Amino acid sequence: MSANRLYQSFSWFAILLMTTLLTSCQHTDTEPIDELVSKGRQAYYDSNIIDALYYLQTAMTAARAAGDEEAHFAAGVYMVMTYELTGRSEDAYNLLKTLNYLETKDIESYASQYYYRMKALFLAKIDHDYAASVDCCRRVIEMDRRLYPADTAFVFTELSNLGETYLMAGDYDHVAETVDEIERNMPAAEGVYQAGYSYLKSSLLYHQGDLDAAYVVAQRGLQYCRKHDAADNEILQLRLLCSIDSMKDHIADYIVHRNQLDSLTAQLRGTQVNYQIAALKGKQQLEQKEYENRRSRTLHVVIIVAMVLVIVALAVTIGALRRNARTQRRMAEVERRRLDAEIARQQLEKELLDLKMRQNAEKLDQAYKNNVTMSQQIAELADNADALSKLHALEATLHEQQADFMERLRQRFPRLTDNDIRLAGFIRMNVKTQTIATALGISAASMNTARYRLRKKLGLQADDDLKHFIDAL
Length: 473
Description:
The protein is mostly helical. Helix content is 82%, strand content 0%.
């Protein structure tokens, strides 16, 4: 046999062997797809963002390659919820839109149920399509009654979500109907759904003008929220309590509830930043794992090819593969440094955010102390002090503490008179309505008229809270 024919034989054999090896490298030993989905799901429940993103992304890729639609759907739904947990609502919604809905055979994975629950959330939260959101909520309720008849808490959780959709849409008639439906069939056993139900009930009572009853229900709702770790509902309840405290001039209670609200908001924001940092680390881990798999496959091919083609192309093949490996390592190192820099930037942003929140909390605390001091000073005026003395005391405090606010108000609303600006400043300082009226020497009816004119000049609607608006300026 000539050298040329020997070379050709080796070449054909090498090509055949390389093709076989490359095909086998595409099917390296990996975990079963169902096990990847299960691990990703458990990591999500444990708030382990790094592992959740790794297992779920790996499962989606493997399921897509294997044509396993159910596994791809289930992994995708939990990936959506993981994105939402890290504050990436837009990414979560975009991913959800790419998933083809399936009623999974494994009903204990709850993927089909969570699909419509998340879709209802995004339709209301992002698209503001409340009718479509209500339709999704009702689909979940029907699914819960059909697939999970023994677990009634599922239905009442979805009813609470339905009520919140009606609440966002301002449809209080349907909110009342939803509350009645929950109360008529409420299970004896306590559950997390009671946090959402309490918020619906207190909001409905607040809208109906029964502030005392709304306050009682909201306070009870706080207990459910804290017991079942329902932080989102706890924030909503605290906002409602602050609004009621403001309307009823309960300054001390307002300060307590406002501090709780600010603390919880800062805590959730910090948690979300930590989740985002974990997501970046998860992405880095996934890319590193993929790089290691590619590197392993490449080395596997290099070894076999080197053994078969040692005579015809040993030096060239090994040299090329080594250059390729070095290039990949350099690229991986560059990417790793970029991700490290991004993680450091996120950490810095978190620290700056914490600092800013502490500064804001200190400013707010000082403002509260100033307002309380002012209120005490006014209260200490002798009972026989005339209205003019009280007015001078109020105005002195107003110009001392609210000068910046009055200037901002005057620039933003040039139509306001000096009396309007003075009234807004008193309201911002939490001065009681009767105290303002007495100091100005006007009746309660005239005071109400002045507040009405101020609301009109500020462009407020009937259901807008004047105190909340002024505090937010």
